[in-house]
Amino acid sequence: MKNDRGPIGIFDSGYGGLTILREIRKMMPQYDYLYLGDNARTPYGTRSFDVVYEFTIQAVRYLFKQGCHLVILACNTASAKALRTIQQNDLPRLAPNRRVLGVIRPTVEVIGDISKTHHVGIMATPGTVRSKTYELEIAKLFPDFKVTSEACPMWVPLVENEEYNTPGADYFVKKNIDSLLQQDPQIDSVILGCTHYPLLRDKIRQWMPDNIHVIEQGNYVAQSLKEYLSRHDDMSEHITSEGTIRFLTTEQADVFQAKAAIFMDTAVEAERVFLE
Prior knowledge:
This protein is of the alpha/beta class and about 280 residues long. It contains 13 helices and ten strands. The mean pLDDT is about 95.
């Protein structure tokens, strides 16, 4: 058993998944984590389903080879466009005893206790919005809820280019929030359906009406993972527990390190890898 153990894999197309990793590690610091960012090919939000699936399965295979028995797709676009295919088609063939989980379902599960009007807004990348995954998942659990989605194509570039505290960020954040609420003024809860968006938290709170609950994913995903591992001793036994983190990127390591430090609130060391 000792030779068949490894870290929890955390995958994202870029840097946003670091906000998920940060919350997971805060809640479960005892485990080892391996973060993989496909930063050289980001963003995924504007890519087709087929391309996102191909890139994501490459990353999952790589993390499996690194010893990960559990991989979290800390990317809404990958969760929306690739997770179901990987779970249903690839895992039974490639690794039936390993698991790949996403970030959408844990986020959706909490809104039943949060929304009073049953009118929910989704702010996400164009790819996630086009997939309608949030609408489908919410309909399964809360069929009487009305869901309105707003694509925010400029929000990720604002974060990735460190422009999230500029007047330009004010313009785009206000524009998208106004557009969402014009579509449905009864919205009382808004899901931030992209892991980059917590860095825009101050701007979002500035332009979002005070009566609207803003749902960030990190804490909910971390809590869901903790509960999952408590129910699956067989999986937790496959996870090493030295409290370490390794960072891998498909971008140049120094570029990743500079930007990742913003998301992690501390300096990080990374190594470059190539996916195929």
